[in-house]
Prior knowledge:
Blueprint: E1 3-5, E2 10-12, E3 15-19, E4 27-33, E5 36-46, E6 49-54, E7 66-73, E8 75-77, E9 86-87, E10 104-106, H1 129-132, E11 142-147, H2 153-163, E12 168-176, H3 178-191, E13 197-203, H4 208-227, E14 231-237, H5 239-252, H6 266-274, E15 278-279, E16 285-293, H7 302-310, E17 313-318, E18 321-322, E19 328-329, H8 333-339, H9 343-365, H10 372-389, H11 397-411, H12 421-427, H13 432-436
Parallel strand pairs: 9-13, 11-16, 11-17, 12-13, 12-14, 14-16
Antiparallel strand pairs: 1-7, 2-3, 3-6, 4-5, 4-7, 5-6, 8-10, 15-16, 17-18, 17-19
Amino acid sequence: MYKVYHTIDNLAGSVITLRAQGVKYRELAEVSSRGGTSLAQVIKLDGDTVTLQVFAGARGIATDGKVRFLDAPMRVPFSDALLGRAFTGSAVPRDNGPALTDNLIDIGTPSVNPAKRIMPRNMVRTNIPMIDVFNSLVESQKLPVFARAGEPYNPLLARIALQAEVDIIILGGMGLKYDDYLAFRDTLDESGALSRTVMFVHTASDPIVECMLVPDISLAAAEQFALQGKKVLVLLTDMTSFADALKEIAITMEQIPSNRGYPGDLYSQLAARYEKAVDFEGAGSITILAVTTMPGDDVTHPVPDNTGYITEGQFYLRNGRIEPFGSLSRLKQQVNKDTREDHRTIMDAMIKLYASFKETQEKQSMGFRMSDWDGKLLKYGERFEKEMMDLSVNIPLEKALDLGWQILADCFEAGETGIPSKLTSKFWPKDERAVRL
């Protein structure tokens, strides 16, 4: 029998409070009043005092409204029928397709027991040189993309969705503009990648509680696909919108705020989602790539600051490029040793020379006289930014490594690069004119 209560003690924004017994955390409820019936979820328990977040907002709900607890948490349908579909943050079809109601699975379940995980060991190829060569993405890794407003982080995610060598793409959008949602959908559809993609999208005009549900729904579906042996890449954008939704609810509930008004459990809330990244023994994997926008380009903002303690590195997106100095994949050494013998060497040499180019660029801007070496560095830096850093470059890892050698050979002598002679003798491009002579 469902538990039904007829008295609501308090209404604030989209949050209602009442007294009830035997209710569980995250349990769903139906709230009925003169304005109709809305779905709600338990977000706080304090003895017999129960706080619910109403999905559609509390407007139109009276204190004599009826609350019926459903004795079940939020669930999402799971089957292969999800593929190619787009849903809201509460798993309602957004694409005018049929609703799915079979094989419901719980969301927000605990992360996988560490004893059931295996060490990350496989590379996720994206055909983007700044990722594949310099900060390789590893299967079951969790990495944020740090970016300020205006950077092309959504187009970057769309490209990764098209090119990543994985079986399933799950896109979780939070606070997206409707145009961004359409851009994702159209890009994936035109390339033929939509058939292996599931989209859970909360737009800026949707109820805020759906924003909070998107990561849990996305990761619940990803876990089921992974248990079927699929390699799943979860793309989340944007986790700052998710944190802002937590903040708004916390303020409504009159919780004591922490840093910049965010709730004190922000770290735990973020970690509970990121820790879903896993490589199952004998099954598939979940890899998480999540955009975190930085208000004012401030990396000390609570959301990126807490994120940095949870994840295994980060990609910094600046001026439309993945910045080589701020970006870091802490697991890249797990796979770089197995790609090609020159991978680590090319990566280190090119970044070292690019750092020297930045110093030379600064000297040039201050009016210092340029030496021949400075001229080589300036030529190299221009080539590196255009042919390696530009996000439009789309080449496999091996071709990117060959391109790296070619750029070095066009700008420097072999002995000027600091690369061991045993590798230059094998990989340094041959002078075609000398061969013909």
